[in-house]
Amino acid sequence: MSSAPTAPASPVASTSSAPSTSLPVPGMTTVDAARLLEQATFGPTEAEVTRVAALGLNGYLTQQLATQPTGYWGFVFVPHTAPTNCKSDPTNPTSTASLCARDNYSPFQVQREFFENALTGADQLRQRVAFALSQIMVVSSIEIYEAYGMAAYQNMLLNDAFGNYRQLLEDVTLSPIMGHYLDMANNDKSNPSQGTSPNENYAREVLQLFSIGLNQLNPDGTPVLDANNQPVPTYTQDVILGFASLFTGWTYPSRPGANSTWNNPINFEGTMVSFPNHHESGTKLLLNGVVTPAGQTPEQDLKLALDTVFNHPNVGPFIGKQLIQHLVKSNPSPGYVSRVAAVFANNGLGVRGDLAAVVRAILSDVEARGNTPSSADEGHLREPALYITSVLRGLGGRSDGVFLRSQANAMGQPIFTAPTVFNYYPPSYQLPGTSTVAPEFFIDDAATALARANFLNTLIYRGGAAPDPTVINSIGTTLDLAPLTTAGTPDALVNQLSTRLMHGSLSSAAHAAITRALGALASDDVVGQARAAAYLVASSAQFQVEH
Amino acid sequence: MDRRHFLKHASALGGSVALAQLGVLAARAQTVATDYKALVCLFLYGGNDANNTIVPIDSAGYASYAAVRGRLALAQGTLLPLVEASGTAGFGLHPALGGTAGLQGLWESAQLAIVRNVGTLVQPLTKTQYLSPSTAKPASLFSHIDQQHQWQASLSVSPSDTGWGGRLADQLAILNSGGSIPSMVSTAGNNLFVTGRATQALTIPTSGSFALQGFDNSAGGIARLAALKSLLGVDRGTDLLDAAQDVMTGALASSAVLNPILTNTTSPVSSYFTGLTSSFAKQMLAVAKVIEARASLGVQRQVFLVSLGSFDTHTDELNTHDTLFGDLGAGLKAFHDAMTGIGAAQQVTSFTLSDFSRTYLPNTNGGSDHGWGSHHFVAGGAVKGRAYYGTWPTLTVGGPDDEGSEGRWIPTTAVDQYAATLASWFGADASALASVLPNLASFSPATLGFV
Fold first, then answer.
1. Which end of chain A, N or C, is surrounded by fewer C-beta atoms within 10 Å?
2. With helix as H, strand as E and coil as C, how does B103-170 read?
3. pTM of the model
């Protein structure tokens, strides 16, 4: 498959002077290390491939699971309604007011920092998992436009990424950002005189999207079928009404020094606070026939509800399969899902919901590891964010994120700005005319495919993007193609790119097509050859589909 | 297998342009000029609250409405009366949908019809039947994505991998064999509605260039473009790689044709959109430009998909509707005025779809929750407008048309019938209809006559 990768395809543990007999070899091949870095980071770099090959899988995962979040810093509270001196003026986008609005009332700075962190943060795996979680437990800047709010939510996901799912579920539920996005904040008990009933929004989506899904699942992720071969729903509308009633009586936390009252002003710092007199006091029907006792406090009700959801057998396969799809492959076998779901159910120490153990299981699985996938049609399309960062990290790129955030927009994935709580793409999306699941392809169309190619053109042929004088410490966006100019021959140049960008997996047919094009350039035009080769490898379907 | 079939189809398109003789193109343009039709689907994402879109304005009807809707009730005096041919008006439009410069204007010129209480169904359904476990009902009612898919597929029994727009395009593919772009065009990305068995939609951008950048006529540029294209044909045979390659292949072929059309700033249709800056207006303008170029594109039956989001008004519904309906009313009026302006009024029909309507009973946050049956707009010169079709539901919470106790109306017209009416106008005969809408036979009448 690969045409002579230049990297050594053997374990790199030989420089150690340790006794060589019975100790297990910790290292892994550089090819598998690079493949692991495609799954666990925002793209391999030469230095990381060398380091991980030496550390080995377990050593690398242990180190990454213990790495603290880089996170989003420097964001400050602003009131939900922007003051007049902080409103955007389209006729003067660099006025003080426009920049104030951009920095505080839009996702601009958070999106920019997302790319900075993805390119340079040491917490690569944590960031990848948090980014996956941000696409499962979605909030969008369409409604959470305050930068400090979006930053706080993403910091929460980064902190919880390797914790317990039960804690994550509770943190998401009591987050005032999620409370604002799906209306649990200020969800009042029913009011007979006004004829109003509790808001069903969070109740429905926490079940459908964040935890168990619509239909009962086997431990391997396949649907449970009834006698008529039909899926079996996990809940009825009565259960939605029960959860809607249960999620009443919570409002935004008050600002420091302010009185806390029902309907506190919008505030995304801290967690939501309860007001028992706004909580529906009756019994509530939950899942699997569980009914809450009447008269419980909001906290008592919440604990019972979240415990009930957490212990539903669907959570492991439902969440586990989606994490596999984000990190490794769109079409995991039922066996892969069941192995991961088993670790979700019990991490080996009797603990359910240990996300660090789940992530370790996903990346250690036989379907994830090895120099090549076990079948030809594996992997997944690199979503725009990963496509962008993989090119930058693989080709010595540097960026302040300004240009990259705009490119993610053009490719259909504005960061933290999904169109709805259903994310940019559904996990079940199938390629037309096939039964192949391919979520990321939902946003791959003629317009966004051209945007990917044109992104490369700007980076490679137009020097990237200049620093933005309105952004502090702006460095613009550049690649470093100089190392490619010393490859020696077109053949070696293409091999080097294949190694850097796609663990040496470029096919011989693709290799031949690219070297043919390089032959049209003067043999001493090493810059032109480096550019053309980088453009062609990075625009190829073979690179875009990570496998 | 279908993917390979699709690729063959795609390259056949490219080839047909290259091989076409001038005379053939001219004859094709002539045919398209006399026999052209377009369907424009406007998908209102999130579930539009139809209860606040069309509102009873007679005294008793309004009083009953206001009593239930409470703080969601629109003021009676702000509703825009929809005067019927008889001279009376029983219902009014949400004011943001626009007076004579909006949907009220389209209604008064008989270019707008309203189809009442349409929804996803497996079979006609009374409340008694709904409450019976043995009656077939749509799966996953009240779930956004499932109900979107069922509206787009016009199939509620089980998940479908094609949509009714796509199947309609499949059936009429013969009319589009001379086209230089795919027959279906989306400004809203990939979508089940425009997914056929053999026919896929092209997504076009609504701003900026639609072109591959950075290639010149130097030897290096020519060789690199040749390599780019050559790479799209190697390593075929796996679905994921094939899909990435097919999307780019289609993008290269279609953008070359469409970029000059989409970036033309002096197109006659542009003037109708002056001052409209919403995403919806930009999408409608892009569609108008493609339709304006219909003769040169050689496609006789086009299906378009446009979308408008944020209708999931669990909270702050009144303000949200004001914004969204302002965009919808002005954009749709501008579009149909533009169609009249280019002489295509009779040939272009637009219509709304949405996940579901919303609960008649408001929730405690100034919003409403997921419902079911909904009222929909159909617009265009061929529409038998200024009239209602289908049956108005009894607007009583817990009443005969409410599935439960929040006012989620059991549909009285099926998506299948709504779709069949549009598909018939588009040119689908009985046998084509049966393929496009496999469950149509469960409903009677098959078509509703609004166009």
1. N
2. HHHHHHCCCEEEEEEEECCCCCCCHHHHHCCCCCCCCCCCCHHHHHHHHHHCCCCCCCCCCHHHHHHH
3. 0.94
